């Protein structure tokens, strides 16, 4: 018996490194879809983070406007122009509002100024024009070259945000109904 030895050539399988890194069309589409999904989730998270005012604070809009007018009068009485107005001239009324002391005026003015500084610039501009300078909404829309609808919506939103800040900082006291005790 003769045994024949068969020698087979040894083949080493080597893969090209760049070929391994190449992606199929399906892989590229899946990665693009994953990136798009992450982008959409980031946008949704950003929208959720944006604070929408509580609809129940709409009741306090007139009180907030009155406080802003009081802020203008008191800050002028304290010898400084409200921070939002800068050097602009604005309409005003002469009043005989009495306060307890100068320190109360300064504290009130600083508290309101801090709340106003937290607002977005577009909200600050509308608060400045309508509540502080006492333009009506149509006049403010014409001055800012915006539609009346945009001014109405944005101004209401700005007042509601400011009202929430006033309620949180206890510049405004919440109204209680008789059933709450």
Task: Break the fold down into its secondary structure elements and pairings.
Blueprint: H1 17-21, H2 25-49, H3 61-77, H4 102-117, H5 121-132, H6 137-144, H7 148-168
Task: Give an overview in words.
Helices cover 57% and strands 0% of the residues. It has 181 residues and is an all-alpha fold. The protein has a domain at 55-178: Arc Repressor Mutant, subunit A, CATH 1.10.10.
Q: What is the CA–CA distance across the termini?
A: 112 Å
Q: List low-pLDDT spans.
A: 87-98
CATH class of the domain at 55-178: Mainly Alpha
Number of strands: 0
Q: What is the average of the pLDDT values?
A: 76
CATH-assigned homologous superfamily of the domain at 55-178? Winged helix-like DNA-binding domain superfamily/Winged helix DNA-binding domain
SSE pattern = HHHHHHH
The biggest beta sheet is recorded as: none
Give the helix proportion (percent range).
55-70%
Shape by Cα distribution: elongated
**CATH topology of the domain at 55-178, which one?**
Arc Repressor Mutant, subunit A
Q: Quaternary status of these chains?
A: single chain
Beta-strand fraction estimate: under 5%
Query: SS-based structural class?
Result: mainly alpha
Radius of gyration: 32 Å
Outline of the structure:
This protein has 181 residues and is mainly α. It has seven helices and no strands.
How would you describe this structure in keywords?
single chain, mainly alpha, Arc Repressor Mutant, subunit A, 7 helices
